[in-house]
Amino acid sequence: MRAHVAEFLGTFALVFFGCGAIADGLPVAVAAAFGLAIAVGVYAFGHISGAHFNPAVSIGFAVGRHLPLIRVVTYAAAQIFRARSPARPSSGSPLAMSNSGSPIRP
After folding, report:
1. Are 56 and 13 in contact (CB under 8 A)?
2. C-beta separation of 41 from 17 below 8 A
3. Residue 52: CB partners within 8 Å, gap ≥ 6?
4. What do you get for the CA distance between the two ends of the chain, in Å?
5. Which residues on adjacent β-strands are paired with residue 103?
């Protein structure tokens, strides 16, 4: 269970900070945010879960027979669920703004 929580939190941080940096618009800031999010996630959660943070990485470990298939399924579920949650408040919220600063109408 600790491993799944680690994947859950690491994926959240990756999506939240990485995609959040896109609002800045600078390619260097986006690259730095994704890189730092991965580095901090690996450092914080690597010893607990392996710090995959991406279903493709988990599947790759399963293909290489380094991770049991049941763990791949549960990791992927945690990763996909958590990757969607940081994007929800900004995508469907009436407070979301377009690049011009005007509210986005759903």
Report:
1. no
2. no
3. 7, 58, 61, 75, 79
4. 37
5. 97
Q: Is residue 66 part of a domain?
A: yes
Other beta carbons within 10 angstroms of residue 43's beta carbon come to 10
What pTM was computed for the model?
0.70
Q: What is the CATH number of the domain that holds 40?
A: 1.20.1080.10
How big is the chain by its Cα radius of gyration, in Å? Answer: 16
Residue 97, strand partner residues: 103
* CA 32/CA 34 separation, integer angstroms: 6
Render pLDDT for 14-43 as a digit per residue (tens, 0 to 9).
888 888 888 877 899 999 999 999 999 999
